[in-house]
Amino acid sequence: MKHSVFVFIIFLLISFNANAIKKSDYGSEKIAVVDVQTILDNALAVVYIRTEVDKFNKNLQNEFLKLENNLKIKEQELIKQKDILSPDDFEKEVIKFNKNVTKAQKVIQEKKIKLEQAHAKSLSKVNNLALKIISKLALKNKYSLVLPSTQILYADEKMNITKEVLEQLNSNLPRVELDF
Q: How many Cβ atoms sit within 10 Å of the Cβ of residue 22?
């Protein structure tokens, strides 16, 4: 009986000390929340990037269609020459045509890769500035922790700094040019 009372008293003391430590270390900490998706959907720079990527994609698609139409015409001409040319000459023309098709596909693929790289680089600029803004807000407002809203189930709206981040981001970086 004495032993169990002693264990109980020790348990209470440890619990009391643990709670005191928790409250003194973390009880007054300020936490903020940022809705990253809202920033990605509404930041002027991201909207501009999206518009530019769409334009480039349309131009690329038009270029691809023209190239495809030219290749179809050349293919039809090649088919017509099948009976006119010798088998060896026709084979040489087919090989030449296939090389042109491969070359055209490679050019289109390279342009797509350059677009993807430019898109990623531009979004990275926006992301880096957003992180700097969040860091400055955290220092200014003494936030110990800033969480993305996707990682939490509930947060009081007072904790949400998305609007502030978005306003500063829009004023500091209204657009980002794509580097091709």
A: 10
